[in-house]
Every structure is written in structure tokens, then in C-alpha cells.
Fold this sequence. Notes:
Blueprint: E1 21-28, H1 32-43, E2 48-51, E3 67-68, H2 76-83, H3 85-109, E4 116-124, H4 130-140, E5 146-148, E6 159-168, H5 171-179, E7 183-185, E8 189-194, E9 198-205, E10 208-221, H6 234-237, E11 238-249, E12 258-261, E13 268-272, E14 275-283, H7 293-304, E15 309-321, E16 327-330, E17 338-342, H8 348-363, H9 381-399, E18 418-424, E19 427-433, E20 439-443, E21 454-456, E22 461-463, E23 470-472, E24 477-479
Amino acid sequence: MFESIWKEELIEKRPQLEGNKQTEVAVIGAGLAGILIAYYLQKNGKKVIVLEADRIGSGMTSNTTAKITSQHNLIYKKLITNFGQEKAKEYAEYNERAVKEYETLIKELQIPCDFEKKDSYVYSKEETKLLEEELQAARSLGINASITTETALPFPIYGAVKFPEQAQFHPIKFVKALAQHLEIYEKTMVKKRKGEHLLQVSVWEDEKECEYEVQADTIILANHYPMEKIKGLYALRMYQEREKILVIEEPHALPYGMYVAANNKGYSFRKYDKYVIVAGKNYRPGEQTEQDAFAEMENEVKQYYSQGTIAYHMVNQDCITLDKVPYIGRLTKGMENVYIATGFNKWGMSHAMVSALLLTEMICKGEDKKNSIFRPNRFAYKASKKELKQHMVTVIRQIALKPVQVQKKIVDQIEPEQGHILKKNGKRLAVYKEKDGTVYSFHARCPHLGCLLEWNKEEQSWDCPCHGSRFTKKGELINGPAKKDMKQ
């Protein structure tokens, strides 16, 4: 049912790691962020290898809407309030640089990735002062923003804040071209970091798991959700959120612009070729377990594009920081050789490039970023307190002894091709029944930090509400931070 519009572009396979390895820089993750970071470090003289647990660009990069923009919804007024004018300006300048850097790099390497300059809009259907406040905040930070009522949206709006000279592209075509310049090992999972210079990795050869070690002067974690359980306390300072995406074949819709609804009260829109990409319906993994959100979304979108046909269903998942600013820099205070880039808050295209620029300045040029708005060891209480409370309630509820059904709905009563959490002999079990009646049973706790998993009926998966790990109906790992399958 779920297929990405971007995956029609195939990337040549790379080999697994075949033994111990030594390098200057080891980058974990071959998504857009890892590829960009590795490329810029290599360009600045570093010997770099990239370690990827699956395939190049196979994670969140393949399910993005692929907007490159410094306009991240109504962000700048909040940044000024929570961090002050100087740090808000740093955020704006790095993201503006990111847009320009993509254009420069794509021209320099002549990358055919359907790059297009587009204006970006955050719109509102309701009369509100928020648009005017965001306009003034953006202008105070040097962004050439304006307010307009003229858009290509298929419905009336009250107004929109417009950022000119933003961009969109085909993310997999871009990653494919950049990856050709890099040494990348696929199907090579980093299982553990041993200190600041050593990684333990795992590969499967002839149905046998083999372990090797990678020695590196510098280690960079760019694998979406950090593998660290304790260092930096990222599990308490970040969660994951999923988003439904419909791709509608409608050649005559949206002649210009990229759009996002103010405070997510509506859908995001962009055009690609003969398609309109519509995104929305945000939720945490494990929260949306019964309802069919795609059916609801399809009914709403058909009101806008009645002549269009739905070509693709996609689901994206991103890491959300409590204060809505990415963590880019040293993993923890005092750790000189381990860096992280995560928490892109659904703006991964621009923040991936920000990560590459900022980490290159730190690692290759020795620049001190200890006071940066992006520094991972920050804690902005005013910006985080509401999200922190909500996140802690979710985690505690899932780790605690949450009530589950005790044989009231026994295995025989579970519908075919469905899963359910049961309790038997004091143990919580995640049980899935195949169409032919075959039953699979697993421990119902996530192997990451022990949260109780939930069955996702629509996507046929076991999801962790705490930190976003996901598993197939047969218990196989889909998304981290978990590093192994569910326990049978």
C-alpha cells in the first residue's frame, strides 16, 4: 500500500564492510544528512567512510516532501521569544545559507535532481495576528518576507507569509549523485559505540552474523534517532512524529509555490512534475492504532482535486526536539570527538545542509560553537516545558504497568491479519495472526527502553509510542532507535 514517489530512482548497491576498518571520520547513516556531512568533510580534506544499516537513502529521505526552505512554519517569533534575537538570527542565517548552498552545489556538480526555485508560503484560513507577528519577526532577522493573499491553493485563505527564493528537488536523485563521491558501506549496522574512537558493527554473511570494529578519529551520528541510550539523555529530550502524505496525479494544479498551514491547521502542498504532494495528519507512533487516517485524508483532498487520481501513499517520520531546534554539534559536553545531527523537526532538507555546514566549521576549521542555538547540550526550559510534560506523561504511561486485555479477547478471537496485546501468565505478549491462522507471539516491550508497543492497524506494524521504534507484523525492526528485532 505504501510506496514512495522518489524510490523510482534506483541507487547502485554498495558492499558490506568486510573486516576491521580505520579512518579519520566515520559517519553513521547514509540518508541526506549523513551524505551531505560526509561530502563536505571530505571536500575539506578529511578521509571519511559512511556506515549504513540498510540502503543509501532508504530511511526518511525517501519519504520526504523535499522542500528546501528557511520558512519552518511560524517559527521565528517563537525563537526570538525563547532564545533571544541573536540566536534566532543564527538559526535564520544558517537556513538561508542552506538554500543557497544547495543551488551552488547542484550547479557545481551538475546534478540532475529537478531542482527548482520556488517561493514558500505559510498560510492561514483564519483571521489571525500570528501571520503579521511572524512577518515582523522574520524581517527583524534579515529575511525578505512579505504578506500576500494571492496563492495557488485550491481554497480561499485569510493570508500567507511569503519567503521568496526557496527551493524544491528530487531528494533521491540528489543523494545518488553525491554518494558517487563517497566510500559507503551498506547493510552494515553500528551496534555500539565504544568510547570516542571505536564502533562495533554487525553484518550478515551466509546467514551468519559477523562483527567488526571501526576505528575513527571522529565519529558522527547522523542516523536519524541517536543510538545513545544514556549519553545526552536524548530519549527524554526528543520524540518522533509521523505524517501522512498523498501524491495526487493532477497536472494542472498548483502552478507555483510551496505551502504549509500555520500551526499545522491544514495540509502542506507542493508540486512535482504532474503530481501534487499533500502532507498532514501528524501523530506520534503508537497513538493512531485503529482509524484509517488515509481514508479520511483522501476524502478531504478529493474536495480540492476532484479530477485527480491518487498515485502514491507515503508516511514520513521525523525526530521532534522539545524546543523545536535541531541538535547539531558535540554529542555531550566534554566529548570532543563524537558529534550528532538529529531532531530536524520535519525540515530535514534544510537542516541536513545546516548540519554539514556547521559540523565542517567545527571539525575542519576548529570553530567554537559552544554558544550556538543548535548546540546539543542546551536545555531551553521556557521553550520546552509544555512538550516535556506531555512527553514524560507518554513515556511513564507506556513503561508503567499499562492495563492490557487478559484473555478477554483470546488468540482465537483475533481477526486474521491483525495484532493485539494480550496478557498471559503475568507476561504481556504482542500477538499477530496471519490470514491462514498462523500466530506469531513476541514480548510486547520495545527492545530500546522497554515501552509497551501498540499495534498499528492501518500500517500493519508494531509501534513504540515513547521513542518511535517500529517493527513489522513479524517483529522485524523497521525504524530505530531500537537496534534489534522484537524478542520471540
